[in-house]
Amino acid sequence: MAEHATDLLEVDGISLSFSGVKALDGVTFSVREGEVFAVIGPNGAGKSSLFNCISGVYRPQAGSVRFGGDELIGLKPHRVARKGIARTFQNVEVFPAMTVQENLLLARDGFMKAGPLSCMVRIGRSAREEREAVVAVQRYAEMLRIDHLLSAPVGSLPHGTQKRIELARALAMEPRLILLDEPVAGMNHDETSEMGEAIRTVNREVGVAILLVEHDMTMVMGISDRVCALDFGQRIALGTPAEVARDALVVNAYLGGAL
Amino acid sequence: MTTTVSAPPTGSAPQPEVAPARRRRVRAGTIGLVAWLLGMVLVPWLGISDLWMGVGIFAIIAAVGALGIQVIMGFTGQISLGHSAFMAIGAYSSAWLGVEQEQPFWVWLPAAALVAGLAGALFAPIAVRIRGLYLAVGTIALVFIGAYVWETWTTVSGGAGGRLAAPVEINGQDLLDGYWSGGTQVMTLFQAWWYFAFAVLLVVMVLTWNIRRSRLGRSMLAVRDRDLAAGVVGIPVTQTKTVAFAISSAFAGVSGALLTAYMGYFTPGQWSLMLSIDFIAMVVIGGLGTITGAVLGAFFFRAVPEVVNWLSAYLPGISQDAKVDGGVTAPLLSQFVYGLLIVVILIFEPRGLNQLCRKPFRWIQQRREGAR
Ligand SMILES: Nc1ncnc2c1ncn2[C@@H]1O[C@H](COP(=O)(O)OP(=O)(O)OP(=O)(O)O)[C@@H](O)[C@H]1O
Ligand SMILES: [Mg+2]
Predict the structure, then answer these.
(1) What is the pTM of this model?
(2) What is the DSSP letter of B314?
(3) N or C: which end of chain B has fewer CB within 10 A?
(4) Chain A hits for B16, Cβ within 8 Å
(5) How far is CA B69 from the centre of its chain?
(6) Where are the domains of chain B?
(7) Which domains does chain A have, with CATH numbers?
(8) Do the Cβ atoms of A186 and B3 come within 8 Å?
(9) What are the pLDDT tens digits along chain A (259 aa)?
C-alpha cells in the first residue's frame, strides 16, 4: 500500500438533511489512489448517507464530490458507476432471481456496446461481447471463491456468500474505487476474517482504492490506512487508525452511545 | 450496533452442487421444445376441424402479443395496459401499407413493428417517470386516446364501419384463399395461416430468448427487481425501461397486424382496454417472465373457453342457447369454469402454467435421484 500523492475522491463540505434531520453536516475528506480509507461512527452518524451522496442515490443540499477531478453531484447512479465507482450495500443488494453468473455479468454492462437490435439477433458484436464477459466474470468469481456457484440462483445462497457475490460484482466493474458499506455485518467470526482477507487481497492485487464503512473495529484498525470518524453528520476525527482510536471525541462518541 | 442478520452456516459447510442438476433441466427443456416444435408442424395435418384450427391460429397470434407483455411486465416489471393501443397502431400501419400502398407482407409486417415500436419509444419518456399502479392508470389513457383517434381519423380507420386489412400474399396468392399449386389446393386457409403465424411466432420467440440471455435482458431483470442497485452497478435504468417499452410495443404491433390480416377486416371498436387486460391475464396464467409462459398462457386463454363450450354440449341440463326461463347456458358455464380454472391454477401454482407443467418432470427427477 504505497503512498500516493494524488487524491482520487475529494468530498468537500457536503451537507444533507431529511426534513430537519441533519444526516451530513459539512463533511470533508479525500481518498487517495489505492488506499483503504475507513469511515466509522455510531448508528445514525450518516455513514450510509455519505455513500448514497457519492454514488448518486441522494443529492446533498450543499458541497461537492469530485472523482478524478470530475464533479459527481447531479449525476445519475449509473453515470457515477461508469466513472469507476462501485459499491456494496449495508443490506445486501443482489438480484436474487438471477444466477450468480448473471449478477456478475451485470457489472460488465459498462464494457458492452451491443445495441438492443444487435442483442435481439445475437450475431457479431453482441455474441462476442457476451462471450468475453463470461470469461471476465470467471476471474472475479475465482478471486472470491464463488466460481463453483456460478449457475446457482443467488436467492438460494447464504447471507455471507451473497455478500461475497456483491463484492465480486463490484470488482467485475473494474472500478478505481469501491465503497463497502459494512461488508461483514451479520457474518460470523470465520466469515468475517475470510472477508477481511478478501478485501485486503482485492486492494493489494487489483490496486483499487477502498472506502470502507464498518462497525467491526478489529477489522477497521487492521486493514485501513486512514480512518475518518463521523458523529451526528459531522467529522470529528481523521487520521491513522492509531490516532483516531486515541482521539477523545471518538472515544466519547462511542462511550456516550454505550452509556 | 449493526442490523443483525441471523448468521447462516459458515463457508466451510458443504456448498450446494448445482451444475449437474442444471444440465438435466436444460435437457428436459430441449426435449420439450423439440416435441412442441414437431407438434406445431404436424397439427395442420391431423384432420383437426376448421373451428379448432382457427382457435389455434388466434392463440399463436396472441402469443406474439403476450411475448411483448412479457418483455415489459415479465422482464422489466412495468405494468402496461396500453398494449391494445400499440396493437392498433401496428394494425393500421400495416393495413395502410398493405392495402393503400399495395406493399407485400415482408414490408408491412416489419413496418408494423417499427411504427408501433417508435410509438412506444415516444410514450416511454412519460412512462418511465411513473411507477406501479400510477403507470397502469397512465397507460390506460393510451387506449382512450387511441380509441378517439381511430374513430375520428376515418381516412385510415374507415370509421366505425371498419376497414380492410393487409392481405398476406405469397407467390401472388392471398393466404386467406388457402395455398394453391397447379390448380389444386395444397393447403387450406387454416393450414396456410397456421404455418404463417407460427413462423412469425418462432421469430419473435427467438428474439425474446436472445433478449433474455443478453445484456439487455439482464438489465431489464435488474430494473424489475431492484432499480436502485441496478443503477449503482451501472445499468441505465431509464434507458432500459425505454427500450423495453419500444420492444414490447413493436411485438404488440406485429400481433395487431397479424390479427387483422387473419380476420381480413377490422373496426376501431376492437382495440379496447379489455384486450390489454387479456394479455396481462395470459402472461400471469402462463407464468410471468418466461417465454414458455407467454405461449402457454396464450393457448390457455384462447382454447379453454372454447373447450368448455364444446364439452358443455355433452353435459345434461345445459342448453346451447339462452332460454326465456334463464337456465344454465353453455357460454355462461364456459365463462364460469374458465374463471374457476384461473383461480385454481393460481392458487395451486402462483408461478403459472409454466411451472405447473414442469412439476411432473421435477417429481420424476426427484424420485430417480431418491432411488439412487
Ligand atoms: N431516506 C431517509 N429519509 C429520512 N431520514 C433518513 C434517510 N436516510 C437516512 N436518514 C437519517 O439520516 C441519519 C443518518 O443515517 P445513515 O443511514 O446514514 O446512518 P449510518 O451511519 O449509516 O447508521 P448505521 O450504522 O445504523 O448504518 C439518520 O438519522 C437516519 O434516520
Ligand atoms: Mg448505514
Answers:
(1) 0.89
(2) G
(3) C
(4) 149, 152, 156-157
(5) 7
(6) 49-288
(7) 7-84+175-253 (3.40.50.300)
(8) yes
(9) 444 457 899 999 999 999 888 999 999 999 999 999 999 999 999 999 999 999 999 999 999 999 999 999 999 999 999 999 999 999 999 999 999 999 999 999 999 999 999 999 998 889 999 999 999 999 999 988 899 999 999 999 998 899 999 999 999 999 999 999 999 888 888 888 888 888 988 898 888 999 999 988 888 888 999 999 999 999 999 999 989 888 888 888 776 654 4
